[in-house]
Amino acid sequence: MNNELRSIDKLLEFKEEQFNQSQAQFKRAMEYFETVGNQLYDLLKTKEKIEKALNDHLKSRIKAYELLNYQQQLDQLKKKENELQMKVHQARMNMQDKEQKRTEAHFEYKKLEKVKENRLIALKKRMKNLENQQLDEVSVQQYVRVNG
Question: Can you give the residue range of the structural domain that contains 97?
């Protein structure tokens, strides 16, 4: 039984390492998601400022080359926005996948911990029963010697 507990301990160490790795991967994925999300947010703020400036200029007189310049900036920002939205989506999916793997690793670790706990309880119970049997045998032998 002692070998069995050592095996479970080794498995627990392995599962704990798996959990720690999945935790680190999830953290990196979450940080990347936040970084890309912040980039998208900043880009949208910039786009909003340019659109506001364009609208302000449209209320007054604006030259054709200025209008063209604004339009080119907005087109470039729209293209970049689409790229960042795709990156944010992929980062979110990756982060959710890493979170699922982390949850599974944690579940496996806890399940194995419970197995170890149950085995320890069973071992203690067996040892107590063995001790009681030995005490019973000693009592019977003493009784036989005294009354025999």
Answer: 2-114
